[in-house]
Amino acid sequence: MGETDSVPTKFPRRMVKEMNEIVEDGWYANRSELVRDAVRQKIREMKSEQLEDAIKEDVRWGLDE
């Protein structure tokens, strides 16, 4: 994984309960792994949306010429 930094954060109790259930069901080894995966997925989603927006803008620009 390389170098890491700690990012302390707080979650609502209900969310922690749901996270614990997911870990207990065996989907993740621990809550940290679950949170890292969720953040990775969100970053991928946002980058994909940014790329899609840039492509749409390029298409609009090309059609306006």
Helix/strand layout:
Elements lengths: L12 H12 L6 H34 L1
Keywords, separated by commas or semicolons:
single chain; 65 residues; mainly alpha; 2 helices
Would you write up a description of this structure?
This protein has 65 residues and is mostly helical. The chain has one domain (13-64). It contains 2 helices and no strands. It has helices spanning 13-24, 31-64. The termini are far apart.
TL;DR?
With 65 residues, the protein is mainly α. It is 71% helix and 0% strand. It has one domain (13-64).
* Topology, number of strands: 0
The residue ranges in which pLDDT falls below 50 over 5 or more consecutive positions are none
Mean pLDDT: 94
User: Rough shape?
Assistant: elongated
Secondary-structure element order, N to C:
HH
Integer count of domains: 1
Instruction: Give the % helix.
Output: over 70%
| Content-based structural category | mainly alpha
Classify the beta-strand content into a percent band: under 5%
Q: What Rg is obtained from the alpha carbons, in whole angstroms?
A: 18 Å
Discrete helix count: 2
Distance between the termini: 46 Å
Q: Give the biggest sheet.
A: none
